[in-house]
Amino acid sequence: MTTIGFLGLGRMGAPMAANLLKAGHKLLVHDVSADAVAALVAQGAEAAGSTAVLGERCDVVFTSLPTPAIVREAVLGADGVCSRGHPRVLCDLSTSGPQLAAELAAALPDVACFDAPVSGGIKGAVEATISIMVGGPQVIYTETLEPLLKLIGKPTHMGEAPGAGQTMKLVNNLLGAVAIAVTAEGMAFGIKQGLDPAKMIAVLNQSTGINSATRDKWPRSVLPRSFDFGFAAALSLKDTRLLLDEAAAAGVPLPLGGIVEDYLVRTLEREGPQADFTAIAKIAEEAAGLDPERAV
Ligand code: NAD
After folding, report:
1. Residues 41, 134: one domain?
2. What is the structure's pLDDT at 246?
3. What is the pLDDT of residue 35?
C-alpha cells in the first residue's frame, strides 16, 4: 500500500489523518507540536521526526497547515517536504489561496501538486463528511488521489488549473462568514427587542432565514455562550483576506467580504488571538447595546 505522509495534525489534520489510518494505510506523520504527533502515534501512525524525512519517504504527502506562508516554507523551505527527495503527489488540504497553489505547481514540476481545501469543520473531519474542493491533474487525481480523499470526505475535482479548489473554497467561505455576520446582526436586533434567542433560532431553522450559522453555529456555540465551534477567527480573517485580494486582482467587487473582514478584525481586538469565529456574535450584540458577558 502507498506510504502516506501527513503534515499538520491540528483540529482538522488530526481527524483526517486518523481516518486514513482507520482505512489501513501506513501513515507517517509530523507536526511542530510533539503532543499532536504523539496522539496520532497512539493510533498507529509512525512519527517521521521531520518534514524532510516525511517528504523523502512518502509517495503521497498531505498538508493541513494554518497559513499560506507556513505551507510555502513547509513545502519549499530548506528543511521542507521537497528538500531531500520529494513525494510523487503533494496535496495541500489547507486553505492557502490560489496564488500559492500556482506557485507550488510552478516550483515543483516533478511533483503532481493538488490544492484540496476542505469545508465542514471538525465534526465533518471526524465523521469523514467534509467537502473537499480539488484542483490539479485529472489522471493522477482519478488514479491516486480520489480514492484517498474519499476516505476523509467528499471530494469534487474543480479543474486541472492549480488553485481551482482554492478558488471554490474562498467562495464557500465568503458565504459561510456572511451567514455568521448576518445571523449575528439579526439575532442582536431580536434579542434587543425582547425575543428569546433559542426560540428565534428554532423559528429561523424552519423559515427562509435558515443558514449554516443558524443550523450549526448558534445551537452549538453561541446559544450556550461557549464560543468554541473550532475555527479560529484569525484563520477566518486569513481566508477573507485571501478572497478579497484575489477578487481585487480579478476586478470583482465584494462589498460583503469587506464587512466580514471588519467584523473579524473587531472580534480579534475584543477577544484576543485565540478567539473562535462565532464570537462575531458578541460584536453585533455590543453594537446593539447588549452586554455579551451577561449572556445577552
Ligand atoms: P490548527 O491550528 O488547529 O492546526 C494546524 C496544525 O499545524 C497545528 O497542529 C500546528 O502545530 C501545525 N503546524 C504549524 N506549523 C507547522 C509546521 N511548520 N510544520 C508542521 N506542523 C505545523 O488549524 P486547523 O483549524 O486544523 O486548520 C488547518 C487548515 O484547515 C487551515 O488552513 C484552515 O484555514 C483550514 N480549515 C479549518 C477548518 C476548521 O474548522 N478548523 C475548516 C476548514 C478549513
Report:
1. yes
2. 93
3. 98
pLDDT by residue (tens digit) across 121-154? 999 999 999 999 999 999 999 999 999 999 999 9
CATH number of the domain bearing residue 273: 1.10.1040.10
Statement to judge: residues 23 and 101 lie in one domain: yes
The DSSP element (H or E) to which 135 belongs, if any, is strand 130-135
- 64 CA distance to ligand 1 middle (Å): 5
**Residue with CA closest to ligand 1 atom 30:** 94
The candidate with the shortest Cα–Cα distance to 191, out of 225, 227, 230, is 225
H runs (alpha helix) in 159-252: 164-192, 197-204, 212, 233-249
Contacts of the segment 200-205: beta carbons below 8 A, 24+ positions apart:
none
Say if 296 falls within a structural domain: no
Task: Assess whether 10 and 151 both reside in one domain.
Answer: yes
Nearest CA to 7 out of 88, 85, 100, 71 is that of 71
C-alpha cell at 240: 477573507
Please indicate, yes or no, if residue 155 is contained in any of the structural domains: yes
- Provide the Cα torsion 274, 218, 127, 268; round to 10°: -20
Mutate to test the pocket of ligand 1, among 62, 100, 235 (most ligand atoms within 8 A of CB): 235
CA of 80 to the centre of ligand 1 (A): 17
Q: Is 166 in the pocket of ligand 1 (CB under 6 A)?
A: no
Domain that holds residue 277: 167-287
The model's pTM: 0.92
For 187, counting Cβ atoms within 10 Å of its Cβ (0-12 exposed, 13-18 middle, 19+ buried), the class is buried
